[in-house]
Amino acid sequence: MDALDALAGACADVRPAEPEEGVLGVAPRYVAAPATVEEASALLRAAAGHGLAMVARGGETRLDWGPPPTRCDLLVDTRRLDRIVEHAAGDLVATAEAGVPLDDLNAALGAHGQRLALDGPPGSTVGGTVAAGAAGPLRLRYGTPRDLVIGLTIVRADGTVARSGGKVVKNVAGYDLGRLFAGSFGTLGLIVSATFRLHPLPPARAFVSQTYGSAAEAYDAVHAVLHSQADAAAIECATAPGAGHRVDVLLEGVAEALPARSDRVASLIGGTVAEQAPDGWGAYPDGSALIETSVPPASLKDLLTGPHAATAALTWSASGHGWAALPAGTPPERVAEVLAALRSIGGAVVRFAPEDVRAAVDVWGPVPALALMRRVKDQFDPEHRLSPGRFAGGI
Amino acid sequence: MSTSLDRLAARCAALLGPDAVIGDPVRLRTYECDGLTTHRAAPGLVVLPESADQVAAVVRACAAEGVPYVARGSGTGLSGGALPRTDGVLIVTSRMRRILEIDIPNQRAVVEPGVINLDVSKAVRPHGYYFAPDPSSQQICSVGGNVAENSGGAHCLKYGFTAHHVTACEVVTPDGEIVKLGEGPGYDLLGVFVGAEGTLGITTKITVRLTRVPETVRTLLAAFDSIESGGTAVSAIIGAGVVPAAIEMMDALAIEAAEAAVGCGYPAGAGAVLIVELDGPDGEVAHQFDQVERLCRDAGAFEVRVAADDAERALIWTGRKSAFAAVGRISPAYLVQDGVIPRTALPGVLARIDALSAASGVRVANVFHAGDGNLHPLVLFDDAEEGAAERAEEVSGAILDLCVEHGGSITGEHGVGVDKARYMPRMFTAEDLDTMQMVRCGFDPTGLCNPGKVFPTPRLCGEVPGVRKGPHPLVAEGKAELF
Amino acid sequence: MVAETPRDRQNLLGDCVHCGFCLPTCPTYVLWGEEMDSPRGRIHLMAQREEGAPLAPMVQHFDQCLGCMACVTACPSGVQYDRLIETTRAEVEDEHPRPLRERVLREAVFRLFPYRRRLRAVRGPLRLYQRSGLPALVRRSGVLERISPTLAAMERLAPPLGPAPRLPERVAARGGRRATVGMLTGCVQGEFFPGVNAATARVLALEGCDVVIPRDQGCCGALSLHSGRAEEAAAFARATIETFESVDVVVVNAAGCGSSMKEYADVLADDPAWARRAAAVAAKTRDFAEFVDELGPRAERHPVPATVAYHDACHLSHAQRIRSQPRRLLAGIPELTVREIADPDVCCGSAGTYNLFQPEAAAQLGDRKAGTVRATGAELLVAANPGCSLQIATALRRQGTDIAVAHTAQVLDASLRGLGRAALL
What we know:
The complex is a heterotrimer.
Chain A lengths: L2 H8 L3 E3 L13 E3 L4 H13 L4 E4 L16 E4 L6 E5 L4 E5 L4 H9 L3 E2 L10 H7 L6 H4 L2 H4 E7 L5 E5 L11 H5 L8 E8 L1 E2 L3 E9 L2 H12 L7 E6 L5 E9 L4 H12 L2 E3 L14 E6 L5 H6 L7 E5 L3 E6 L5 H12 L3 E6 L2 H6 L9 H11 L15
Parallel strand pairs in A: 2-4, 3-4
Antiparallel strand pairs in A: 1-2, 5-6, 6-10, 7-11, 8-9, 8-10, 12-14, 12-15, 13-14, 13-17, 16-18, 16-19, 17-18
Chain B lengths: L3 H13 L4 E2 L2 H5 L15 E3 L4 H14 L3 E4 L16 E4 L6 E5 L4 E4 L5 H8 L4 E2 L12 H7 L6 H4 L6 E7 L5 E4 L7 H5 L8 E8 L1 E2 L3 E9 L2 H13 L6 E6 H11 L9 E9 L1 H17 L4 E4 L3 H17 L6 E4 L2 E2 L5 H15 L3 E6 L4 E8 L6 H18 L18 H4 L2 H14 L29 H4 L7
Parallel strand pairs in B: 2-4, 3-4
Antiparallel strand pairs in B: 1-2, 5-6, 6-10, 7-11, 8-9, 8-10, 12-14, 12-15, 13-14, 13-18, 16-19, 17-19, 18-19
Helix pairs in contact in B: 1-3, 8-10, 9-11, 12-13
Chain C lengths: L5 H9 L12 H6 L6 H12 L5 H9 L5 H5 L6 H15 L4 H13 L3 H16 L2 H8 L1 H5 L1 H9 L12 E2 L7 E6 L2 H6 L1 H13 L2 E4 L9 H4 L4 H15 L4 E4 L2 H8 L1 H4 L7 H9 L1 E3 H8 L10 E6 L2 H4 L6 H8 L4 E5 L13 H4 L1 H18 L3 E4 L2 H13 L5 E3 L1 H9 L9
Parallel strand pairs in C: 2-3, 2-4, 4-5, 6-7, 6-8, 8-9
Antiparallel strand pairs in C: 1-3
Helix pairs in contact in C: 13-25, 19-21, 23-24
């Protein structure tokens, strides 16, 4: 039996790939879209039988992140795994399949006054968000997928379905594979469904914003709020070459207390209060290359004033996590300089960049514990068929 | 001929100094159990390293001799996670207790694993910060132990667990390397290390996140006729979109015990008391606190006491915090269970526990973190009475079955350890457990690091990954049992 | 001593659920981080002993226990470690042959300290020695350390001695009489800290008490009781009971003495002729601060503008649970600032005879305590036990800091008499 027949026998929706479905230029042979966990399991078992390498695809918001796969025979499209399996409102938990768009999930939860506190850019699926470990400004208060996934169902490279965690928030039975898979970019297994801890939607929110002429003022404003009793849900700082240093603070809470709270923050940082999110709130900075940074709050001034700041548009959350974007046409040597400057004050990983740039720079930077990571990878995917080459250290 | 343990003892004495090695049988036996005394095994050797290098040297020496080892902090665990091996080495971190760095601008502190949980908070309190995980043993449990167990506490409802408050760990891996987890790109190995109950390595340095001391803390005690109306209040509070810092509930028997032990003065005749604590910015808390008070009364609270100051707040908490130990005053012996159910299943499950208790004649006192459905039934028995312990154990196990049946967990915070490994198959399939153990095989292929914990059956790491066909080789050899 | 049936003892041991809450307050666990040198570990050893394990490897760990009873305060399960360690110590004394040198020293200590006349006899030569310039020489030479660390510790700890005025047998109340109280003068307190007793008597009188100070009083038995010398302790107790039976209240200003007198009922429970009398005296024994606080202030408090650190003596805070009363008394003095010492529950290492028999551990604990005392920035250390004051002052001196020490009674005395800070510093 040839591979296509085997795949088709396992999954109802299998077809040859279109040329434009390539992952960073690596064109798969087949595209399969399982609609159930069982189908996904059978599909991966069939792929294993034929030694097919695979890449998972959700909303395609981050498919171009990381290096191209070293090989890709099968593209697994998760978008038919689209059920919100359960929303236990009284327990503040929800389970959704991998292909459910995050926006749809949050719309459904919002109807019950609840939310999944992951506010990444629109279009992402549940599976993609978990696989990328992606989160927006709310990460300051609520963390990232690793902090909010309480149960995860995956299909292993050999087709075995495995589950960890459960559907209760407080649970320490067994290893937490949810945290291991969060941010693993599809290299350990196919995420098919996730159970999340939810939070109540805040009755009211307010943004306090100010743009400063100097990095020092922005630094002071951020630290004033961070170390105050403001209890901010998000503190963001952004700048771009030639622009000022903008600080935005998000406060959430009961409507009765919010005006006083936001006034307090406004006077603390000399800012103005608005109900609506400022432009570009939570969006990645614009550019043809995107770098994910980790710079701790005490080094914010260095982030805003370092040699990279002459080229890069920057956003940063007081959680210590941020983004740097470089304009089209930035030469690879300059990108390398920017990376070196960022790595001297924290971490920097190139998420996407033009091919010539990607080829010329160290995309990942230092990867501590790489040997251990390889050993874990070898356990889950001994044949290196899951998104091969797309992850840190060439995993 | 010297045994491998003799050779290790000599090697460790050379590496760490003779004062850091305990080999005398009488002294060794004082390490035979942690906070769970139903499982005991005197270690073959105890070592007390003072640095990561010493830990790594001991681990390498163990690896060279093929001798298993177990790490232990303060020895307060409640699942036997630090139960020693008679044929192995117990690596005790109680001398690694320096707070290495306090970095307020970055809201971080770096501590050694033997540092006591509460001491972190004490050290940063003058700066207006604290370390949020507050297991009830926080005055003695070590941060290293918190990492192993992913400890929570009464306030984890709002603030989360140790995993959410540890940003990096220096770890001695089972091959004796010192590596840093939680920094740089790649897999979140830190995420899986925290809560792995010491089976993936030994942490030697922990970077913890510090949390701002809230502007306001307000606490109330509400007394209800019954657990049901208390449960209604909990649902109403959560349903109203309030996320309290803590919601704790105790039933009549637990109240009786606490009263006997510490005279906490809870309202007489209460079938259940609820402790609700809110914290955060003044205005926010003030508004929600009124709401909570109202919701408690609406649910049938016949008395609501609001703590006016820290002393009154402490008094409210005294009864709750003493409850475990206090049960010793109303029963010669007891088992503490730790199960989790979805919060909404609370009334039904408690009724079933009542029925179990009535049918078996075994008394059960209930203390629980009601906000997150974490039950701590205290199963009472008289150890002098023949068969009583077995009956208590049976009821205790049946309660776990109830939890699993309702989509919950067999442990919310005590861990699986050695105590609950046999219950794991009730919650997870063989494939689930096999998959988890793939992580262990990646970290510890020889299985010397805290063996026999968490999983009922070890996975042979040389195996080709995949679902086993036929019995596990160890089962076939009669060396292990699959429950 | 209460005779325990094996079943009693099993029950007492069984009360320990091994939760570990005692560990952080145990001085030796704080020092060494070893299970055998923690209350939980020692109870485990006692349980092993019940099962027939050899005593020899355990003795060191029982000896190393300071008997500070911080664990009793910390224990949520109500384990009576105080009773357990006392019986265990008695067992050790009965069954464990100590090496000759240890035996000689222990005998010397127990034949000296509980006897005021003998203590008085060494006062003279000690005073001479202290004035001679010899101490510096002796300390530099380390000769005593070589002969015996215990002797060296005694030499280091001996307080600078001034004249010891004799107290009258009766001090009359000022103003209207509110009570008649007996006062225990204590052996070490009486001979080495006579100023404390004088201050105690004055404060009691100024607060309206007739103070009776029987001249023929002896040792209360605390040292013996806390070292497992049960019979000796009982004999001291009987004599002390006879001395104080006639007064309404016995006021004790040394924490160790107070706690042992409050235990008299247990000490003589098995002696039918004495049990009731012992219980009666125990019931009317009060610590100085406890009593004065209970009595309520009547005499005027004058300002004492000074910053003090209050140290909880273990036998006051843990054994007698007296923590708030002395703080209240000090807080009632105008212009006096009271600073709290970090880790107040951890013993200073004095612990009765501990700094004599376990000088090394005692010195380490003394250093820790001295560090926390220094961190308060206080100029005066206030403690209610002579041993603690000696111990901490010695440790501070080792660290190059001289701090004035005073008993709560002396601070109150200075305030009541309007002496200001000069009297204390």
